[in-house]
Specification:
heterotrimer, A alpha/beta, B alpha/beta, C mainly alpha, B: Rossmann fold, 8-stranded mixed sheet, 5-stranded antiparallel sheet, 13 strands, C: mainly alpha, MetI-like fold, 13 helices
Chain lengths: 326, 319, 301
């Protein structure tokens, strides 16, 4: 669907993931395709339950199966389909080529190990280095996330939330992975700390040339950290394109609705402009445009399959009546 | 207009292992009828504790609280019952603030029954009325909270708080657990209700864009103290306290052509346990000098705009 | 917004009455019916209860009828499980014995869990000194084996009868229940809905019974169901050492106890009562697990 380029690090094609729960099928991801260039950052934006985390976990192949099942699709990392790779090879890819940061730093840190050893352990797992060298590299890593060397031998509980998340970032980037999956990395943090953490992450990534998929619900974070953006609704990418395409020329009614819901958008107006209604029940078999139940532009024609139209080069929109709104 | 709710030098200390935690320290605010005050700050700054003190879910350590000019700091059981019919609260987490074993109808009905204000026949009508007011579909009356989405649950929390026609409601981060599109629905609901019944609100949140939209005035808290207080628009145009400046600049902007000019703070929130006299922000402040070791006082810099910083004039070059 | 500011159409009120309330219990029953192992437990227990209730119709002999021609007789067609040292038919005694064992197990578990619920709620909600007093007492109790407590209670009150046994057993296992209940109350206390209840003027008893109790009762019921099997075992243990229900009542544990002197020569005296106790406890554990999944699907895992 999207133009093939040689500098693509990752391309995901027609990914479909389902969960089974109590005999019912939950359609979590319904045919998602996107590309990520080397060194770039893709922002995956969407609301709770849209399927963002499921996509990230499918890439890293850490979905709990059952209940989850990748029904179809391809996940190509530098041409290798990760979905076809054997588990023992996947072990070498995880951490070394792809790593992931989760929302809650506590779940990623072992409370009984010093943070220094945790970072060093990851380094030794993927690199043929001595314990001493690994320790040195770990200290370097800590310093690059602005944590002092003296804290190498401290335990996670001695760190504050923002520090812990920086340790997690250091761990994730210690093996210089090609791809970093960051799932709401700052949602649990305060804004001033969030700014520090995002800043650290950006510096370090630039230094290492790591590509990133940043999952968030915060459009402000996307605006400041991403090169390209994909907006997800009900397990489908409804609009994707460069940051400029999305922020200046939002064309899908859902993207437009998201922007209009923001209090910053309604500056000077008394009322906000929410999107009416709720996201569809994920147990419904996807059909037509899944946003039509809440869409102000919906017509009968929206019940048919909606093509992913290319509006301008690289700007895709899954809507039969794409339109910019101010 | 007179203040509906007012605090004078309100303090709430907790004794914790290692000393005394100054959760709320010397806070004096007042809110006029039909107005909204936004209380912002980062986690642990005491904003929620302040809210809980105002509705007597925490008992304050020192200072006074007034409701319609009447001192309501110390209340006996009977007075407390009366007070709570006038001052209510909406909680942050719509998942934990509703009893999972009660239906929507039962949750909204309970305060009505307890107030003994309604006859049996009137109860059903009042429940229906509240559900309609807060936009809960009638078919959901017999549902349990876990069957509903976050937005709907928060509507139930609002309906419960509104049930006794209070004059004042503390909203403790009521939308921070919700998605943006749903968040906007709930904010609109709160503003509509406020307009209809000239309700007085205290809106506790960490989200600056939300307070900017909903409040008439804003009070910024840092480690238990109010560091800056001002009418909303004035504060967004003209921040005086260095912490407020940093806080505002930290919010990521959605305007990709004008990213926010960040005032990066070093370090993280220091501990509110046994704070030293002097400015509590000085360890993270770029302007800190020895003058900041001295106790600070909240002073009115321009009319209605208060700031807790002895160097406010130097920093902002007003003189 | 006065109470009568809006008129409600009559049909609206009818709708209210017609709304069907599907409570947590009916949902739980549906889930239990779908749980195969849980149903095996339930059906097994119902069968045991039925057999005990209908004992006079089923049992081939009277449980106390002695036939001195057949002492310690091995299983045969006339006596499928053999006879005991006094020539009584073991099968018949087991069938009648269910009446004692099941009742003792069930009632002891109910009594124990009920006492634990009350103490645990008080300790958990009151906190402070009351909590300390109750919990330290429970610590003391816990440091003594449950069977030992039951023995002490049984001996102190000189109770070798039915009710005495139930009380002794129930109190013997109380400490674990109190601890569990207190823990649950402490968890519920953290929830904002308790604060919300305070904010709408709920009295303390109302908070306890309307807001705390419904949120912990399911776990306590599960504890009770799994406790029954344990109680039957302890009851058997008490009988073995000569406390609890006494001969000639055909209690399963007492039968086991009576048989132990002959274990080397007549193993069937021990094997059959032992097997029945084992099967019964097994069924109760299956039901307990099934109930846990049914009442609180979140607890599974």
């Amino acid at each position: 669907m999207m133009s093939e380029k040689n500098d693509n690090l990752l391309s995901v094609r027609d990914l479909v993931v389902e969960y089974t729960s109590g005999g019912e099928i939950i359609h979590a991801v319904n045919g998602v395709s996107f590309e990520l260039e080397k060194g770039k950052t893709l922002g995956l934006v969407g609301e709770t339950g849209a399927g963002k985390t499921t996509i990230a976990k499918s890439i890293l192949r850490v979905l709990l199966s059952p209940p989850a099942k990748v029904k179809s699709g391809e996940i190509l990392l530098e041409g290798t389909d990760l979905l076809k790779v054997r588990e023992d090879e996947m072990l070498k890819i995880r951490g070394a080529k792809i790593s992931m940061i989760f929302q809650d730093p506590m779940t990623a840190l072992n409370p009984t190990m010093t943070i220094g050893n945790q970072i060093a352990e990851g380094i030794r797992l993927h690199n043929d280095v001595s314990a001493l060298e690994a320790e040195k590299m770990a200290i370097d890593m800590l310093q690059s996330v602005r944590i002092m060397e003296e804290r190498f031998h401290e335990y996670p509980f001695q760190f504050s939330g923002g520090m812990k998340q920086r340790v997690v970032i250091a761990m994730a980037l210690a093996c210089k992975p090609k791809l970093l999956l960051a799932d709401e990395p700052t949602t649990a943090l305060d804004v001033t700390i969030q700014a520090q953490v995002l800043d650290t992450m950006r510096d370090l990534r630039n230094q290492l040339g790591t590509s990133m998929i940043l999952i968030t619900h915060d459009l402000g974070i996307v605006a400041e950290n991403c090169d390209t953006v994909a907006v997800i609704y009900a397990g489908q990418i409804v609009e994707s394109g460069s940051k400029e395409d999305i922020f200046d020329h939002a064309s899908h009614p859902y993207t437009v609705g998201l922007f209009h819901s923001l209090p910053m958008w309604a500056m000077g107006e008394k009322r906000l402009h929410p999107i009416d209604g709720l996201p569809p029940d994920p147990r419904i078999e996807p059909n037509g445009c899944m946003f039509r139940f809440r869409c102000p532009r919906a017509t009968k024609a929206c019940e048919a399959t909606v093509p992913n139209a290319e509006l301008t080069s690289g700007h895709f929109c899954r809507c039969i009546a794409p339109k910019e709104e101010v | 207009m007179s203040a509906v709710i007012e605090t004078k030098n309100l303090k709430k200390y907790f004794s914790v292992p290692g000393g005394v935690l100054h959760a709320v320290d010397d806070v004096s605010i007042s809110i006029e009828r039909g107005k909204t005050i936004g209380v912002v700050g980062e986690s642990g700054c005491g904003k929620s504790t302040l809210g809980l003190c105002l509705v007597h879910l925490h008992e304050s350590t020192d200072g006074q609280i007034f409701l319609n000019g009447e001192d309501v700091t110390d209340l006996n059981k009977r007075q407390l019952r009366k007070f709570r019919e006038k001052a209510q609260i909406v909680f942050q987490d719509p998942y934990s603030s509703l009893n999972p074993r009660m239906t929507v109808d039962e949750i909204i009905r309970e305060p009505l029954i307890l107030s003994r204000r309604y006859k049996k026949g009137e109860l059903d009508d009042r429940v229906d009325e509240l559900m309609e007011l807060t936009g809960i579909e009638e078919r959901l009356a017999q549902s349990y909270p876990h069957e509903l989405d976050g937005g709907c649950r928060q509507r139930i929390g609002i309906a419960r708080a509104l049930s006794l026609d209070p004059e004042f409601i503390v909203c403790d981060e009521p939308v921070s657990a919700l998605d943006v599109s749903i968040q906007a629905q709930i904010l609109n609901l709160l503003m509509d209700i406020q307009e209809k019944s000239s309700l007085t609100l205290m809106f506790v949140t960490h989200d600056l864009s939300v307070v900017r939209h909903i409040s008439n005035s804003i009070c910024v808290m840092y480690l238990g103290q109010v560091v800056e207080m001002s009418p909303t628009e004035e504060l967004f145009l003209n921040q005086l306290h260095p912490y407020t400046k940093a806080l505002m600049s930290a919010v990521p902007s959605i305007d990709i052509h004008n990213p926010s000019q960040r005032v990066m703070l070093s370090g993280e929130l220091t501990s509110p346990i046994n704070p030293k006299p002097g400015c509590r922000f000085k360890d993270r402040c770029v302007y800190a000098t020895t003058a900041c070791e001295e106790p600070q006082t909240l002073e009115e810099i321009t009319p209605g705009h208060l700031c807790l910083c002895s160097r406010v004039n130097e920093i902002n070059q007003l003189v | 917004m006065s109470p009568n500011s809006k008129t409600i159409l009559p049909e609206k009120n009818q709708v209210r009455k017609k709304r069907k309330k599907q409570g947590m219990w009916s949902q739980a029953v549906v889930r239990l019916f779908h749980d195969k192992l849980g149903m095996v437990g339930l059906i097994g227990i119902l069968a045991l209860v039925l057999i005990s209730v209908c004992a006079p119709l089923i049992a081939p002999f009277s449980p106390t009828e002695m036939d001195l021609k057949f002492i310690n007789a091995a299983p045969s067609l006339a006596h499928p499980f053999g006879t005991d040292a006094l020539g009584r038919d073991i099968l018949s005694r087991l069938i009648y014995g269910g009446r004692y064992s099941l009742a003792v197990g069930f009632l002891a578990s109910v009594v124990g869990q009920f006492a634990a619920l009350i103490l645990g709620m008080i300790a958990g909600y009151a906190g402070g000194k009351v909590d300390n007093a109750i919990m330290r007492t429970m610590d003391v109790i816990m440091s003594i084996p449950a069977t030992m407590i039951s023995i002490i209670v049984a001996m102190t009150f000189g109770t070798k009868n039915f009710i005495g046994t139930i009380v002794a057993l129930g109190l013997g296992g109380i400490a674990g229940g109190v601890r569990m209940c207190r823990g649950l109350v402490l968890t519920v206390r953290q929830e904002e809905y308790l604060r919300a209840a305070q904010a709408i003027n709920c009295s303390t008893p109302r908070i306890l019974f309307r807001h705390v109790f419904p949120n912990i009762i399911s776990v306590m019921i599960i504890g009770m169901a799994t406790g029954i099997g344990n109680m039957i075992m302890v009851a058997a243990g008490l009988s073995v050492i000569g406390l609890g229900i006494q001969p000639p009542a055909p209690e399963w544990g007492a039968m086991l106890s009576a048989g132990r002197d002959y274990i080397t020569h007549y193993p069937h005296l021990v094997i059959f009562p032992g097997l029945v106790i084992f099967i019964c406890v097994f069924f109760f554990n299956l039901l307990g697990d099934g109930l846990r999944d049914a009442i609180d699907p979140k607890l599974r895992k």
